[in-house]
Every structure is written in structure tokens, then in C-alpha cells.
């Protein structure tokens, strides 16, 4: 099979018939063998009824329905597990992603050898209140992850099948699938300018809060990818530095008092100096961070996937 098209959706009954016709037309025109996997993320507007009815006449259409709304990451993860095509295309169901872009994305994977290609909606029809935070967010994400993409949030992406089978999308981490792919060893990541269309039916399911949560998710995935299997490297280093700094300050205060006493100068007790308590606090926090790193190491070494590595190729092995 050439292509698996995964479409997460939530209350998009009005747009589904047009989206289905559009995808089918593009696939037929280009002679692709394909499957369309629609993930109904707990819709209550009749979306699932349409999927059930249409699947009776279109064997390429597959549907999965969640009992409740779990979010886009859960839908993509489930779709990735079911996908069988050599190239996996993800797109939104609101008709803002154009199926006409599929041949170009497919070509970049199959002919140009990219592991992943992300769409870039260079010209957007969203209001400035949405475009400006998006630009700031994407610039930050690009800097932190080291992946030069202009639009991390674009739902229109293409992947090699082995990429989606090698990553686990959870929580709200769908924004950072390119970073997950990079951490899994798929570093040939490209970008393609795609057409953005104004929403035709319904209302957007995402608000400005996604940018706030996006930054929190960025911090989480960055931390986990760098220190998930070696927490002592972070907590132990910080804890040791804080403890040594606090100990050095207290020792310096003690030496200073002894020198002053040797010269016959009476000074107040060390415990009356506020710097003593600041230094003591540093030592306590340093000890706690060190212990946190130690406990993290114990948990990491007990994890079932502590020695799970992605093997690319082997020679002369059974």
C-alpha cells in the first residue's frame, strides 16, 4: 500500500463528505493505493454515523471511535498503530489542510528520501491574534529543539512508515512529533510550503491556551529526552553545586570570624547573619536535589524500557 491518510476529528460532520470526496479524487487521479483512517475523538454531532454509513460503500475508509474526547495526540497514536502504507499522511478534518498537497509530500518521502516532511502554512487566513503568538511559539520551539521548522503545529505532515512505528505520541505532544522522530534517529526532516484554507464549517477547537500548554510541553519533552534516562546528571549536578556553594559560604564566614577574633575584634554570632541562613538553605536544597536525582536513577533503572534501542540494520544475525 502506498499511502495511509490519518485524520483525527472532533465534531466535523459537515466537512467530512467534502473531505472524503477530495481525498478520493486526489488518490484516484494519481493512481495511489491507499487507506483513509478516520479517528473520531468522541464526537457528538453525527460524525460517526457518517463514517459507518460511508465505510459500507468505500472499503478504503476505516474508522475508529473513542468513547470520549481524549485529544489529538491519542487519535494520532491510535492511527499510527493501524497505519500500513509506506507513507503516512496526517491532516486535519476541517478542510483547512488541502489534500492536493498529498502528491508533493509523498514525492518528498519516496523520491527525496526524507524521513518526515512538515507542512508550512506560510500564508495563513487566521486573525493576527492567532498568527503572532504562533510565530513566537514556533521560533522558540525551533530554537529549543534544533529543528528548523516554521510551523510545528501544522497538522499536514508526511512520514515514512517506520517513523510512526518508532515513536509514541502521548499527552499533548503531537506538536513535537518532529522532535520525537529526531530523538529516535530519524534526522532527515524537511519542510514544504502548503496551502492554508479558511475554515468552511464549524468553529476551531483550539484556543490561545494551546500556546501556553505548548511551552509547558516543550519544556517537558526537552527534559525527558535529555535526562529521562540519566536524571542524576541534572539533579545531581545542580544539587552538588548548590551544596558546595552553601558550604563554601558558611566556611568563609567561619574563617572570617576566627581571623577577627584573633585580632581581638568581637563580632556577632554567625547565626545572627542572614547570609548564614541563605547558605544553609542552599545546602538543604542541594541535598534534596541530589536525593531527587538518586531516586530518579533508581526509578529509571527499574523501567522496563531502560534498554530499548532502535536498531536500524544488522548483518549475519538470525
Give an account of the 3D structure:
With 318 residues, this protein is α/β, with parallel strands linked by helices. The chain has two domains: 225 residues, Spore Coat Polysaccharide Biosynthesis Protein SpsA, Chain A (Alpha-Beta Complex), CATH 3.90.550.10; 72 residues. Helices cover 48% and strands 12% of the residues. It contains ten helices and seven strands. Helix 2 links the parallel strand 2 and strand 3. The two termini are 28 Å apart. The model has no long low-confidence stretch (mean pLDDT 85).
Give the gist of this structure.
With 318 residues, the protein is of the alpha/beta class.
Structural topology:
Layout: E1 3-9, H1 16-30, E2 34-40, H2 47-55, E3 61-65, H3 72-82, E4 87-90, H4 102-110, E5 116-120, H5 128-145, E6 157-160, H6 161-164, H7 177-183, E7 189-193, H8 209-227, H9 231-262, H10 274-302
Helix pairs in contact: 5-8, 9-10
How confident is the prediction overall: mean pLDDT?
Answer: 85
| CATH secondary-structure class of the largest domain | Alpha Beta
Low-confidence stretches: none
Biggest sheet layout: 7 strands, mixed
The first-to-last residue Cα distance is 28 Å
Query: Strand portion, in percent?
Result: 5-15%
Amount of helix? 40-55%
Series of secondary-structure elements, N-terminal to C-terminal: EHEHEHEHEHEHHEHHH
The side-by-side strand order for the widest beta sheet comes to 3-2-1-4-6-5-7
The CATH topology of the largest domain: Spore Coat Polysaccharide Biosynthesis Protein SpsA, Chain A
Structural class by SSE content: alpha/beta
Give the CATH superfamily of the largest domain: Spore Coat Polysaccharide Biosynthesis Protein SpsA, Chain A
Shape descriptor: elongated
What's the total helix number?
10
CATH architectural arrangement of the largest domain = Alpha-Beta Complex
Please give the domain count: 2
Tell me how many strands there are: 7
What is Rg?
27 Å
Amino acid at each position: 500500500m502506498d499511502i495511509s491518510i490519518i485524520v483525527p476529528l472532533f465534531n466535523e460532520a459537515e466537512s467530512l463528505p467534502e473531505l472524503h470526496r477530495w481525498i478520493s479524487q486526489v488518490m484516484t487521479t494519481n493512481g495511489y493505493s491507499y487507506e483513509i483512517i478516520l479517528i473520531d475523538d468522541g464526537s457528538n454531532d453525527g460524525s460517526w454515523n457518517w463514517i459507518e454509513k460511508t465505510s459500507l460503500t468505500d472499503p478504503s475508509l476505516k474508522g475508529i471511535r473513542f468513547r470520549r474526547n481524549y485529544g489529538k495526540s491519542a487519535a494520532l497514536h491510535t492511527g499510527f498503530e493501524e497505519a500500513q502504507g509506506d507513507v503516512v499522511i496526517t491532516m486535519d478534518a476541517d478542510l483547512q489542510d488541502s489534500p492536493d498537497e498529498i502528491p508533493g509530500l509523498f514525492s518528498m518521502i519516496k523520491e527525496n528520501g526524507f524521513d518526515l516532511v512538515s507542512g508550512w502554512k506560510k500564508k495563513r487566513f487566521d486573525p493576527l491574534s492567532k498568527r503572532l503568538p504562533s510565530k513566537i511559539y514556533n521560533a522558540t520551539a525551533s530554537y529549543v529543539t534544533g529543528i528548523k521548522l516554521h510551523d510545528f503545529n501544522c497538522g499536514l505532515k508526511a512520514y515514512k512508515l517506520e517513523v510512526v512505528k518508532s515513536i509514541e505520541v502521548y499527552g499533548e505532544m503531537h506538536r513535537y512529533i518532529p522532535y520525537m522522530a529526531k530523538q529516535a534517529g530519524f534526522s532527515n526532516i524537511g519542510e514544504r510550503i502548503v496551502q492554508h484554507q479558511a475554515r468552511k464549517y464549524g468553529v476551531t477547537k483550539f484556543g490561545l491556551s494551546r500556546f501556553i500548554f505548548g511551552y509547558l510541553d516543550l519544556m517537558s519533552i526537552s527534559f525527558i529526552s535529555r535526562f529521562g534516562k540519566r536524571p542524576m546528571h541534572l539533579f545531581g549536578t545542580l544539587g552538588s553545586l548548590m551544596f558546595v556553594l552553601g558550604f563554601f559560604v558558611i566556611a568563609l564566614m567561619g574563617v572570617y570570624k576566627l581571623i577577627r577574633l584573633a585580632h581581638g575584634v568581637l563580632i556577632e554570632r554567625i547565626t545572627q547573619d542572614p547570609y548564614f541562613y541563605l547558605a544553609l538553605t542552599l545546602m538543604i536544597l542541594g541535598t534534596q536535589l541530589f536525593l531527587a536525582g538518586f531516586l530518579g536513577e533508581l526509578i529509571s533503572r527499574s523501567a522496563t524500557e531502560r534498554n530499548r534501542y532502535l536498531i536500524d540494520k544488522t548483518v549475519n544475525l538470525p
